[in-house]
Design a protein that fits this description.
InterPro entries: GAF-like_dom_sf, HTH_MetabolicPath_Reg, PcaR_PcaU, Tscrpt_reg_IclR_C, Tscrpt_reg_IclR_N, WH-like_DNA-bd_sf, WH_DNA-bd_sf. The chain has 261 residues and is of the alpha+beta class. It has a six-stranded antiparallel sheet with strand order 6-5-4-9-8-7, sandwiched between helices. It has a three-stranded antiparallel sheet with strand order 1-3-2. The protein contains ten helices and nine strands.
Length: 261
């Protein structure tokens, strides 16, 4: 379902963001034709926007291919520095990774996706590693489920009406009824264990992080091999330190106003 656009909506801004979002880890450099195809624009429109972004310093052109410049990091830095949530969470994630020897991460809801804003890789050679800034569909991830479960019912209803519950693996929940039942379980138990929904063999365990006002602002997660331990072992050995980590981050968030006084 397409999002409703207000009378204020500026299509030029939408097209500019489409060009910027066209660049991705698997396509960091693209020709004009590739940018146009990835952004859904015609070549002439994509070219005008690319030339504007070159003038502004956000895109580089080597004569054939276009690429983003480091200047685009200004946008992410402004968000992260204004929130300071990743900086607060990182030492706690490091402590949890040291204890569990698995990758830990912090994520926030970004539209219908969960975006990684902090992560600490595990020390194992074959440990999961997901870069900061990565986005995954919220319905298929442990952190996404925690964040969706925390939404007010009326907001969640509106979100689910427009979300595409795509099947990523055979175990991904793809029905509204199934997802609502899962989110209800998350609310009851205060955490979630999600197996094989985003990637076969990957288990995600997540718990909510609440801000000073009590609202859920993020989720903290442990990613591990689903075949490495039974769900009972995960509940007994992974969930308690994960929930403790979330509580420690919350305690630091409550201290944040005093630090800025």
């Amino acid at each position: 379902m397409a999002a409703v656009r207000g009378a204020h909506f500026v299509r030029a801004a939408e097209r500019t963001l489409a060009v910027l979002r066209a660049f991705a880890p698997d396509r960091p450099e693209m020709t004009l034709t590739e940018v146009a195809e990835a952004s859904g624009l015609d070549r002439a429109g994509a070219r005008r926007l690319l030339l504007t972004l070159i003038d502004l310093g956000y895109v580089h052109h080597d004569g054939r291919q276009y690429a983003l410049t480091p200047q685009v990091l200004e946008f992410g830095y402004a968000y992260l520095s204004s929130r300071s949530l990743p900086q607060i969470a990182e030492p706690h994630l490091r402590r949890l990774t040291g204890e569990l020897r698995e990758m830990t991460a912090l994520g926030v809801l970004d539209g219908d996706d969960v975006r990684y804003v902090a992560q600490v890789p595990g020390p194992k050679l074959l440990s999961v590693s997901i870069p900061v800034g990565t986005r995954f569909p919220a319905h298929a991830t442990s952190m996404g489920k925690v964040l969706l479960a925390a939404m007010p019912p009326e907001h969640l209803e509106a979100r689910l009406r427009s979300m595409e519950l795509g099947r990523i693996t055979p175990h991904t929940i793809t029905t509204r009824e199934g997802l609502l039942a899962e989110l209800a379980r998350v609310r009851r138990q205060g955490f979630v264990i999600s197996d094989d929904e985003l990637e076969a063999g990957l288990r995600g365990v997540a718990a909510p992080v609440r801000g000073a006002d009590g609202r859920v602002v993020a989720a903290v997660n442990v990613s591990l091999d689903a075949r490495g331990a039974t769900e009972e072992v995960v509940r007994n050995e992974v969930v308690p330190p994960l929930v403790t980590t979330a509580a420690r981050i919350e305690a630091d968030l409550r201290l944040k106003p005093a630090r800025g006084a």
